[in-house]
Amino acid sequence: TDDDMFSNVFCENSKKLIDVHLFALAAQYYSVSNLGVSTPLKDLLEALRGDNQGTTGIKTDEFMNNKKSHEVQVMSELVDNIAKYCGIKQVIDIGSGKGYLSSFLSMQYNLKVYGIDSSNTTTNGAHERNRKLKKHWRAYQSRARANVESQRLEKANDRPVQSEINCKAINEKLLNKTSSLQHRDQVTIQDLSPPCGFTGIATSESSKQTEVDLASRTQSDESKLSEEVLAILNVLPADAVEVFSSSRSNCGELCEEEKEQRKMASLKAKASKLRESNLYFPLTSCITAETELSDIITDLEDCMMVGLHTCGDLAANTLRIFTAKPEIKAVCNVGCCYHLLSEQFENQEDSPEEVWGFPMCQYLKDKGWCCGRNARMSACLALERVAVGQMLPTESLFYRAVLQVIIEEIYGVTKSSLEKVTRITVISFFFVFNLLQLPDSCIMDYYEKYKHRMNELEAFNMLKVVLAPCVEVLILLDRLCYLKEQDNIAWSGLVKLFDPVKSPRCYAVIALKKQSRF
């Protein structure tokens, strides 16, 4: 069994680590990737799209840093596919921050997005960023179209050469076969030649079929355009569509076909103008599990909830709101800041009335499971980054540890009281020291006392890094199991969205309600 396999990692009596190599193997064994509990992003996109192909859009690295660009590009494509699959146009971005994901979803994919953040300052910043982004959006779109057209022309130029090579190869094979078939009068070389443009052979029947195909394709394209335009116009108020009068459009002098063409052209122009308008609305509100979205969003309709790196309990609350509200048809949430999660059993307090960030699923609740702050802090570490040489800031972590000892020993502040200052930077330490008015000699004495243990601290932190995926998978599976326990969920899963080196918190919890076709 698995327990027998890793039974010798720790000493049975002292509970101390005795086999570091086996410890690393055990940690790897219980990671998300090794347990096989995640759904590949490619498989999910194929299931959502069916036979439809993905769209080529604007590259986000023109107005975001590399990390944020990678996250927004991948997640926005998935959100758009889920929205199309569920037949919805409204998206609620929880913990939207500066609106990177929200603005891109609205401008690139024409989704109506409400971004909700608890900070009024951040919301104002999102408004300003969105204003500037809209100003340059046309240029981004033009550049993207030019790039797509350039790629299309390159492929078109390469295609005739490849076609000629293919035709030549096929003809050579067929000519070799011809010698053995010459005694059959009904078989000719022309019968065996492929319908290739380089053979110069084209029958009237194939020409007619081509015309029929082109006409059918044109009709299909016009139908799709009409559907897209009407879908966009659905979000407009009733008086936003201009009524065509006979005096302005000369209806009496136009045939029905021309009228329809002009009408479609006008609708297309309005749709284009709408796409450039602001369909992203930043809002300020603190989201809890009891939040009524209809109190925040007055025109709430069938929608999906998204969250890109929702901190602490916000991820858990997002999932609870999703399961409770029938109008929310899907959710796609990437959590972060596990150390900020509230735990029901951490302080041995049993408060059924209070909503906790962990655990969520009934199984872990029945077990009274507790991670503890140290384990949750470990889950925030980035093993993949360390593996490629992006090491932990051991020196600053050492200074932080020395500061904790000083505050405890000199000022009597307990360890639990210090948890809220664990993110203080090294620069802030000097400010704290000056504020406390400690003599330099006292500080240096503590430094000299503990500096020989810096390597010990580094080794300890490396063990925490190795353990990080195990703690993270526990938190993620707790959220997934919570969704599996709900009766109204048609499908739910963990999906790895991002490159973990670029974005360590790379797993999304995704679910669709039973009303959808999943």
TrEMBL record:
Residues 67-344 form the Methyltransferase domain. InterPro entries: Methyltranfer_dom (IPR025714), METTL25 (IPR052220), SAM-dependent_MTases_sf (IPR029063). Signal peptide: none annotated. PANTHER family: CGI-41 METHYLTRANSFERASE, METHYLTRANSFERASE-LIKE PROTEIN 25-RELATED. This is MET25 protein. It comes from Phaetusa simplex. The lineage of its organism: Eukaryota, Metazoa, Chordata, Craniata, Vertebrata. The gene is Mettl25.
